[in-house]
Amino acid sequence: EVQVAESGGGSVQAGGSLRLSCVASGYTYSKYCMGWFRQAPGKEREGVAEIDSDGAMNYADSVKGRFPISKANAGNTLYLQMHNLKPEDTAMYYCATDHKYCEGFADFRYWGQGTQVTVSS
Per residue, what are the HEC states of 16-79? Predict the structure, then answer.
């Protein structure tokens, strides 16, 4: 059984930084995509950043240059380093993974429970 768990959320003032971590267990695939998503109250879930086993990355325009994504441990650990946080970044952040190449934030089967990020002005 694949399990995904996020950590690292919290409250920070605008302009601050946080690092989210995600650990996926229960599988070992040579081809995979891992991604970060977020959902703010009253809004739909949106893709933030994703990275695949070849290192190809994709970012939402709203976070480009601020939220570098990285991975470690052969696809079992994922990070999102968030810099220059803005109040509009406030959301529940979710990690997702699947054994496929990334396809524009689409079709992930395995999800974590989420970690809350709150940015105050």
Answer: CCEEEEEEEECCCCCCCEEEEEEECCCCCCEEEEEEECCCCEEECCCCCCCCCEEEEHHHCEEE
Residue 55 is encoded by which pair of tokens? 């290192």
Q: Is 116 helix (H, G, I), strand (E, B) or coil?
A: strand
pLDDT grade for 73, boundaries at 50, 70 and 90: confident
Q: Which residues, including other chains, have CB under 8 Å from residue 73's CB and lie 6 or more apart?
A: none
The SS3 of residue 2 is coil
pLDDT, tens digit, 9 for 90 and up, residues 103-112: 999 889 999 9
Tell me the pLDDT tens digit for each residue of 3-12: 999 999 999 9
47-82 as b/e: b if 16+ CB within 10 A: bbbbbbbeeeebbbeebeeebbbebeeebbebbbeb
